[in-house]
Amino acid sequence: GENVEQHPSTLSVQEGDSAVIKCTYSDSASNYFPWYKQELGKRPQLIIDIRSNVGEKKDQRIAVTLNKTAKHFSLHITETQPEDSAVYFCAAGGSNYKLTFGKGTLLTVNP
Amino acid sequence: NAGVTQTPKFQVLKTGQSMTLQCAQDMNHNSMYWYRQDPGMGLRLIYYSASEGTTDKGEVPNGYNVSRLNKREFSLRLESAAPSQTSVYFCASGRGTVGEQFFGPGTRLTVL
Q1: Euclidean distance between CA atoms A60 and A53, whole angstroms
Q2: In whole angstroms, how far apart are CA A80 and each of A13, A86, B3, B4, B60?
């Protein structure tokens, strides 16, 4: 089955800096790569996703890049703000209805 | 639209007790999922249902059973709870074979 590795497990940045979280996946059949944000005590919510026919996608301060050959994808957050502090999860999925999640990255943005 | 709802929000059980976690969605989604979330372990799939009338095992199905009651509802049952099942349980739903999954608010379960 699919295996998703996520790094780092914790990340601390100063407000205004950029943050990068990286994930690798094992199954070449995976073609959908979402990123979820989970605030403390809340449910995971999708913030951005990318499909395998696209190399990069941006939405305001967040962007995701995908390298299918190397089987890795990354989340980039620019101009970080304290409200970006949360746990971020990457995931990978194919045409089998399932998503496999990474173990999460705790991002702390210090004012 | 309420989205995905779960009951109860919190539950404390003694070892060996049974309980059912309820989940419902009003988005007319075909697929539904049950995950558990443990510290440092991410979200692990317990069972899923690709469509009404079908259920399949995920990564960690042992000790659980599920029922897809109809298109809206998907329940998770613990027949004989164990302390290792202490976790936060999330239900989710999705439209097609792969795509965004929408999560419920979660159930925090403690087994003593």
Answers
A1: 21
A2: 8, 12, 29, 30, 36
Mean pLDDT for A47-62 is 94
Q: Is A83 helix (H, G, I), strand (E, B) or coil?
A: helix
Q: What is the pLDDT of residues B60-103, one digit of tens each?
A: 999 999 999 899 999 999 999 999 999 999 999 998 888 899 99
Comparing CB atoms, the residue among A32, A89, A103 nearest residue B99 is: A32
pLDDT at B83: 97
Say whether A97 and B100 touch across the interface (CB within 8 A).
no
Q: Do A102 and B42 touch (CB under 8 A)?
A: yes
Give the three-state DSSP class for B33: strand
Contact A34 B44 (CB under 8 A): no
C-alpha–C-alpha distance, residues A106 and A87, integer Å = 4
B45 with A99: Cβ contact below 8 A = yes
Partner B contacted by A27 (CB < 8 A): no
Please answer whether residues A15 and A103 qualify as being in contact, where contact means their C-beta atoms are separated by less than 8 angstroms: no
CA distances from B108 to B61, B80, B88 (A): 18, 17, 4
